[in-house]
């Protein structure tokens, strides 16, 4: 294990929480806490993984700073694999800051950099890089399902797969090597066969993995969704219904800025990022403000359109224009006001929907809302594919590396097929092996590590 100094930081979100935790990690963690702790025991003597009630005092004046519960966890069974002490304070920004100041006033301890606890966990070999990144994703996860993906990564699902793929590449490289040593074989032809079979398999799995990337990205960032329709069809009602139905919105973590015109709702595990909800609430929708042509551009950035129609009315030219504007886009057509006499030509609506789902609702009476939610979920989890068991790549850096590695294998396949010198094939495979290694951090550079970990929240 590497030798580090002792670091400390507030590890709970800043705010008026009931409990705030100051966390220390490093060789002096227990001694530092012990110096300012007054309780039944000396912290230096208590067994590991135990919690102790007591007071924190200014070590010079013996003045009480806070009442605390102190957890003492000795290496190596800790998050960082170092000695860790957590001071559970009484909370309040002022109190917790005073405790942190007190700790930092002790010798041999300094304020942790953002992400430094996680960085240590990585450097001490407790987690690999993709797991460290998953910790960050977890902090930002918007819904339960995004949480599951992040947890899957922390558990090492992606790392394990990447590990296996690298193993396989290494084996491919080795078998090619063996061939070169037996000149009685036609080395080029053997190489071609081996590369096609083994490296081809690796590339297939990488392609598969990239297919999950879209879903992974949506889970992380939300499916950007626009509600459109002419005035009075029920857009605001739909927005309100979705917001109310959203039972498990994970609110943004303190410290990350929140875009005021975006609202996240969770529909059966699919996070929708509703675009321009302020516009709908206050000044009606984008189409009205900007006209169809301009709104078409705005709509293009959406992953999903919810087009609302009034079933109590005949289709108007404006409705047709809206259909026109969302041609070829992911959309769900909502025929609202089913509680009133139906005037709309449903056959025509189906025609214009062109295979996209049409759902009938009465938002006033909350009818059809389940159908709508099911339609949204079905769009996302194609044919009800259960997502929980899949290995997702959702991290932009991972996606980039997988794309690159995939391309390198492609190059190797091309080189083998063209009967290029075997060295060339080897080089491409070797580079793919290296590139995949960057996902887990096996081949990561120090500068990359610094950049990655500095993105973490302070105290994590
Ligand atoms: P927007 O202009 O598209 O945002 O539509 P609103 O959501 O503001 O709704 C316009 C009016 O239609 C309001 O008076 C709503 O109460 C009413 N409304 C919305 N949905 C329904 C529905 O399903 N049935 C009936 N009868 N009225 C509805
Ligand atoms: Zn409205």
UniProtKB/TrEMBL annotation:
GO molecular function, one term: GTPase activity
Residues where GTP binds: 232-237, 251-257, 276-279
Cofactor(s) essential for the protein: K(+)
CDD domains given in the database record: trmE, TrmE_N
SUPFAM superfamilies named among the record's database cross-references: P-loop containing nucleoside triphosphate hydrolases, TrmE connector domain
Main location: cytoplasm
Binding site for Mg(2+): 236, 257
Residue sites binding (6S)-5-formyl-5,6,7,8-tetrahydrofolate per the record: 23, 86, 126, 460
Gene3D superfamilies: P-loop containing nucleotide triphosphate hydrolases, Probable tRNA modification gtpase trme, domain 1, tRNA modification GTPase MnmE domain 2
Protein residues bound to K(+): 232, 251, 253, 256
EC top class named in words: hydrolase
Domain TrmE-type G, chain residue ranges per copy: 222-381
InterPro entries: G_TrmE, GTP-bd, GTP-bd_TrmE_N, GTPase_MnmE, MnmE_dom2, MnmE_helical, P-loop_NTPase, Small_GTP-bd
Segments traversing the membrane: none
GO CC annotation terms, alphabetical: cytosol
Biological process terms in GO annotation: tRNA methylation; tRNA wobble uridine modification
Function: Exhibits a very high intrinsic GTPase hydrolysis rate. Involved in the addition of a carboxymethylaminomethyl (cmnm) group at the wobble position (U34) of certain tRNAs, forming tRNA-cmnm(5)s(2)U34.
NCBIfam families: mnmE_trmE_thdF (TIGR00450), PRK05291.1-3 (NF003661), small_GTP (TIGR00231)
Subunit annotation: Homodimer. Heterotetramer of two MnmE and two MnmG subunits.
Family that this chain belongs to: Belongs to the TRAFAC class TrmE-Era-EngA-EngB-Septin-like GTPase superfamily. TrmE GTPase family.
Name used for this protein in its record: tRNA modification GTPase MnmE
């Amino acid at each position: 294990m590497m030798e580090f100094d002792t670091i400390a930081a507030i590890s709970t979100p800043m705010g008026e929480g009931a409990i705030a935790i100051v966390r220390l990690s490093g060789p002096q963690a227990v001694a530092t806490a012990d110096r300012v702790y007054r309780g039944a025991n000396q912290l230096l003597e208590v067994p590991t993984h135990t919690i102790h009630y007591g007071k924190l005092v200014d070590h010079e004046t013996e003045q009480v700073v806070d009442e605390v519960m102190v957890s003492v966890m000795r290496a190596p069974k800790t998050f960082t694999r170092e000695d860790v002490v957590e001071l559970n304070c009484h909370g309040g920004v002022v109190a917790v800051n005073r405790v942190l100041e007190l700790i930092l006033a002790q010798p041999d301890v300094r304020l942790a950099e953002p992400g430094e606890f996680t960085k240590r966990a990585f450097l001490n070999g407790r987690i690999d890089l993709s797991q460290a990144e998953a910790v960050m994703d977890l902090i930002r996860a918007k819904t339960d399902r995004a949480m599951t993906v992040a947890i899957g990564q922390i558990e090492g699902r992606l790392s394990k797969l990447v590990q296996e793929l690298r193993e396989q590449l290494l084996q491919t490289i080795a078998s090619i090597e063996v061939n070169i040593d037996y000149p009685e074989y036609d080395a080029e032809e053997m190489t071609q066969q081996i590369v096609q079979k083994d490296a081809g398999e690796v590339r297939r799995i990488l392609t598969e993995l990239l297919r999950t990337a879209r879903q992974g990205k949506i889970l992380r960032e939300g499916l950007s969704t626009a509600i459109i329709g002419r005035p009075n069809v029920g857009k605001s009602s739909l927005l309100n219904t979705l917001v109310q139905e959203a039972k498990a919105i994970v609110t943004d973590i303190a410290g990350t800025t929140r875009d005021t015109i975006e609202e996240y709702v969770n529909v059966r595990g699919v996070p929708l990022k509703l675009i321009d909800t302020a516009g709908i609430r206050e000044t009606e929708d984008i189409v009205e403000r900007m006209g169809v042509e301009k709104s078409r551009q705005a709509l293009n950035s959406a992953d999903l359109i919810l087009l609302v129609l009034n079933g109590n009315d005949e289709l108007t030219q404006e409705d047709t224009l809206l259909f026109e504007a969302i041609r070829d886009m992911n959309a769900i057509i909502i025929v609202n006001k089913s509680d009133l006499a139906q005037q709309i030509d449903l056959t025509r609506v189906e025609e214009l929907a062109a295979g996209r789902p049409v759902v009938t609702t009465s938002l006033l009476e909350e009818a059809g809302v389940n159908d709508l939610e099911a339609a949204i979920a079905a769009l996302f989890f194609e044919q009800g594919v259960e997502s929980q068991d899949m290995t997702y790549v959702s991290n932009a850096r991972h996606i980039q590396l997988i794309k690159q590695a995939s391309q390198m294998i492609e190059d190797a396949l091309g080189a083998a097929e063209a009967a290029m010198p075997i060295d060339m094939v080897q080089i491409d495979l070797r580079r793919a092996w290296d590139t995949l290694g960057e996902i887990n951090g096996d081949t990561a550079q120090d500068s990359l590590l610094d950049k990655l970990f500095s993105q973490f929240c302070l105290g994590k």
